[in-house]
């Protein structure tokens, strides 16, 4: 019996051994750290792979936008010229964070959650020219942040809750230097209340530190007037993108008019899908570098003369999906280099007012246009505007307008004038088709009196 029990026990132990084997090996690998060690590099590679690396105009771009990143990766290529990190989750820019990218010319950090920038965060970026920090949570920073950037010529800081107190003084003085025209434009104070809404570039820097000092004992401080609240400008309502080309995106913002203070260095502007009804003169006069303007899907029904003044280099204009019926005379005269004009889905009214638009396009054959189709009146609905204008001009009897002049041939003149009198028959049957002013009786002939 004991022998049989021993044999059964050995059989049971043998069958259980294969199940314990793999578990023990897994535990052993875990103890050595191989399983955990493989996981971390795998995650880093995936984060690297989602970034798009490409070349444009001989320069290397690394596009890591919308990737939920909280920092930069050490295995990213170090020879990039443009690093795009917009719309991630970066909160703090730490010392030497970008020091490996020594050839970097532009750095896009907009629309993150950046609340703090350490003094040496941009150390090593001696070639950097463009730095975008708008739409973040920054309240203060010092001039030392910009010291490692000797070539910086373009800096965006707006839409940050800047605390305009003494710690911000050195940075504001740096921004206000005459040579720094494009550093910190449109950035505004969020506090204190007395300075809220004022631009950093226009602050009285000498009074900043006085905001921290309370009134002297026994001195009654006069209440300060509430800050003036102006209309929000384009930079606070819209989104600015610098790569691959500067773009001001104001689409789908429920705008009823063109926002004020349009940036002067924007190349493309998207104002589509809003509620703009009227373009007034000189809305875009400061946007001299604009090459593409999208005004589609608004409710445009009127464009004033000089509405496009200043857009000398505009090449593409999209006015499709609006309520335009015609253009006023000379609306397009400022668009010297226009190459594409989109006019689809507008209720073009084919009468005399449409002639200017057809005339301008006829004399600018290099402009490719689409959508110029009559919607009204019903008899011309679906016609091309150019075909309508041809029929309009064809109704004018040019060969009849010069008849009835005094040529000195009395008999011929009498017969021609008699042919124009009402009620007289014409052998060719064209009398009924003449315009009304030509059907009237000819005026009396002059009587010639010879004087001795």
Keywords:
seven-stranded mixed β-sheet, repeat, LRRCT domain-containing protein, 452 residues, Leucine-rich repeat, LRR (right-handed beta-alpha superhelix)
Notes on the protein architecture:
- With 452 residues, the chain is an alpha/beta fold.
- Among the domains are: 55-209, Leucine-rich repeat, LRR (right-handed beta-alpha superhelix); 234-394, Leucine-rich repeat, LRR (right-handed beta-alpha superhelix) (Alpha-Beta Horseshoe), CATH 3.80.10.
- The protein has 8 helices and 21 strands.
- The protein has a 7-stranded mixed sheet with strand order 11-12-13-15-17-18-20.
- It holds the Pfam family LRR_8.
What is the count of helical runs? 8
Indicate the low-confidence ranges by residue numbers.
16-48, 224-230, 399-441
What is the percentage of strand-forming residues? 5-15%
Oligomer: single chain
Structural class: alpha/beta
CATH superfamily of the domain at 234-394: Ribonuclease Inhibitor
Summarize, please.
The protein is of the alpha/beta class and 452 residues long.
SSE layout and pairing:
Layout: H1 2-32, H2 34-49, E1 52-56, E2 59-63, E3 82-84, E4 92-93, E5 106-108, E6 116-117, E7 130-132, E8 154-156, E9 162-163, H3 169-175, E10 189-191, H4 234-237, E11 239-241, E12 247-249, E13 268-270, E14 278-279, E15 292-294, E16 302-303, E17 316-318, E18 340-342, E19 348-349, H5 355-362, E20 368-370, E21 374-376, H6 385-394, H7 410-420, H8 436-439
Parallel strand pairs: 2-3, 3-5, 4-6, 5-7, 7-8, 9-10, 12-13, 13-15, 14-16, 15-17, 17-18, 18-20, 19-21
Antiparallel strand pairs: 1-2, 11-12
